[in-house]
Amino acid sequence: MGNGLKARRQQHHSFLYEPLFSPPFLEEGENEKLRVFSTKELKKATKRFRKDRVVTSDDGSVQTFYKGYINGTTCAPSRTKTKVAVSVMECLQHSPRPKHEKAESLGEIHHPNLVKLLGYCYEDTISLLVFEYSHKGSLHDHIFGKEEALPWETRAKIAIGVAEAIAFLHSIKKIPINQELHMHNIMLDDVMRSHMV
Asked: pLDDT digit string (tens) for 114-168?
C-alpha cells in the first residue's frame, strides 16, 4: 500500500516490423509531378556537367553525380538567391521498362530517409535523375575520408535511419528492390540525417 509504485501490466511483444512512418505512397492523383528537364537545362544548372563525385560499384559499374542549382519555385536552372542545390545522377538502365515510367514510379515513393526525386531527363542516350542535394556528402566520405571519427550518437542515428528506409522499401510491393547497400548510396544532410539514394 505504501510505496506509491503501480504494478506494470505485462505487455506482449511482437517481432513483426511495424513501420514508424506511414503512408508509403501518396494517394492516387496527389503525387507531386516530377519535372522533366532538358539536357540543355541540366547542362546550364550543373555548369556543363562539372563532376561532383564518381562512384565505382563492386561490379565495376560507374555512376557519376553532378552538383547543380535550380530555382526553388520554378525548377529552372538558377544562379540567384532562390537557388536550391540538386544532385544529378547519370543512370545505368538495366530494365526493359520505359525510363520515364521507372522515374515516375520512383517519384511516388516518399520517406524521410530516402533522397527526394525532383525530376529526370531522358533524351537520346542521356539518362539523368535529379535529386535533392545532401550537403554533408556520403557516409563513405565520412568513414574513409575524414580524420575525425563520427560520434557514436551520430552513427546510431545514421544506422536507424538506414534501417527504417530499408524496412520501408521492403514494405512496398509495387516496386522491386534490386539495389545493393553501399556507403556511397547513403547521403547525409545538414543535421546528419541519412538519406538513401
From this structure: 998 899 998 878 888 898 888 888 898 898 887 788 999 999 999 999 999 999 9
The dihedral through the CA atoms of 119, 87, 71, 189 has a sign that is: positive
Predicted structure pTM score? 0.72
**Alpha-carbon span 36 to 2, nearest angstrom:** 70
Cell reading at 145: 575520408
- Taking only the tens place, the pLDDT of each residue in 157-189 is 999 999 999 999 888 866 666 667 888 889 999
Rounded Cα distance between 139 and 186, Å, is: 6
Q: Based on DSSP, count helices (H) and strands (E) in the chain, helices before strands.
A: 4, 8
What SS3 state is found at 156? helix
For 195, the 3-state DSSP assignment is strand
Going by the DSSP 8-state scheme, the letter that residue 51 receives in this structure is: E
Label residue 14 exposed, middle or buried (CB < 10 Å: 0-12, 13-18, 19+): exposed
**Residue 95: what are its φ and ψ, rounded to 5°?**
-95, 140
CA-closest candidate to residue 103, choices 19, 181, 26, 32: 32
Q: Grid cell 547525409 — which residue?
A: 188
Spell out the domains of the chain, with CATH numbers in brackets: 35-196 (1.10.510.10)
> CA distances (Å), 64 to each of 61, 92, 118, 175, 184, in order?
10, 10, 17, 24, 12
